[in-house]
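Intended use. Records like the one below are meant for learning the mapping from a protein sequence to its folded structure. Do not use them to infer anything beyond what is encoded.
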Amino acid sequence: GDPTVFGNLRLPQIVGDAVKEAVDSGKFNGYAPAVGYLSAREAIAKYFSEPAAPLTGNDVVIASGC
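Structure written out for the chain above:
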C-alpha cells in the first residue's frame, strides 16, 4: 500500500527545502541529461570508488528502468 496515506512517511524538512529550491531555480524543470547530471554521477563515483578501482563521473550512467 501507499505508506503516505497515514502520514507515517514524513519527509525531512531539509529534503523538502532542497526540492523546493531546485524547482524554484528553474534549472531542473525539464528532462535531465540521458546519462544523469554530472554532479550526481560524480557523487556516486566518489561513494563507490576504491583505490584499486577508482571511478569518475564519466564512468557512471544513471538510468531509469532496467
